[in-house]
Amino acid sequence: MMGIVIRVYNVSFKFVSYVKMIFERLINYFMTLINVVVTRLGLHYSDNIDVEIVYKSKDFIIVNKPEDIFTNNHNKVRPSLDVLLGKKYPHLVNSKLEHSFYFVHRLDFVTSGVLCIALNKQACAKASGAMQKRISRKYYIALVRGLVSTDHLELTNSIGYCAKEADGNRKMCTVDEECCTEPRDAHTRLVVLERGVYMSYPATKVLLQLVTGRRHQIRVHCSTIGHTIIGDYTYSDRKDTSPHRTFLHSYRLELGVDGINVQTNDPFTKAKLNGLWIPVEYVNRVGDDCFRLFSNCS
């Protein structure tokens, strides 16, 4: 009799646990949908957005840019980093500049993470020179659709503008597409970190190094190999609408100037994504030296 009671208890406990798991996933899913609606309708309110400063000196500010924020733009009603920084540091605003600060490089609207701003013309020239000479190293973390079968990849398809969308959002494409115009060399290095599932579908967490810096380069290269970044509405043919954001993050910047090496936390962990991302296989782990992970790239 006692054995029957224990078995019934175990079945009941498993059933309750299963129902709880389904309930939690449904809540997370609907919260994601709400965030998507807010993003698509542009309902952000810039006064409520705080910009995390990860490094500051007399020459540079390095921020952890939030996702779905413009680096700078002419429409000051919509949130942009130049406006947010101007409110945070009004004494550092350069009134002679159109966008108030010297932006050494840019991040896409959808991309979060490390972004460097120079506070004077000399510092900007020094940092820009380091990037042009490829002394700087930029690393990104992304969650992509599907299981990337190879642990290391070199992506070298040239990238140009898509002639089909010349009057649209300036979508990019690779040179092997007939619509590609003004192609330029592009080089992205990819290392697999984890393989698992996102919302019950196969997915892979990857670390990427930008060797060149073309517009939408990582997003285009990932979509070219059949592993579109999760949440990338543009390069999924406008099909990927369920996540609350595009899962691309500027993770680390080794500026090559003044010994500046800045790294953020990984925003795409199981805990931070409320259990929607579940890693199953751990292939590589990031640390203070990201470059070592690319030593096996061919």
Question: How is the secondary structure organized here?
Answer:
Layout (H helix, E strand, L loop, with lengths): L1 H39 L11 E5 L3 E6 L15 H8 L13 E2 L8 E7 L2 H12 L4 E9 L6 E4 L3 E4 L9 E3 L5 E5 L3 E11 L2 E10 L6 H8 L23 E7 L6 E3 L13 E6 L16
Parallel strand pairs: 4-12
Antiparallel strand pairs: 1-2, 2-4, 3-4, 5-11, 5-12, 6-10, 7-8, 7-9, 10-11, 10-14, 12-13
Structural class: alpha+beta
Number of beta-strand segments: 14
Question: Based on CA inertia axes, which overall geometry fits?
Answer: globular
The average pLDDT is 86
Query: How much helicity do the residues have?
Result: 10-25%
Q: What's the number of helices?
A: 4
Strand fraction: 25-35%
End-to-end separation: 64 Å
The largest pleated sheet is described as:
11 strands, mixed
If you compute it from the alpha carbons, what radius of gyration comes out, rounded to the nearest whole angstrom?
Answer: 21 Å
Taking pLDDT < 50 over at least 5 consecutive residues as the criterion, the unreliable ranges are 36-46
What's the order of the H and E elements? HEEHEEHEEEEEEEHEEE
Task: Explain what the structure shows.
The chain is an alpha+beta fold and 298 residues long. It has helices spanning 2-40, 81-88, 121-132, 217-224; strands spanning 52-56, 60-65, 102-103, 112-118, 137-145, 152-155, 159-162, 172-174, 180-184, 188-198, 201-210, 248-254, 261-263, 277-282. The longest helix has 39 residues, at 2-40. 36% of the residues are buried.
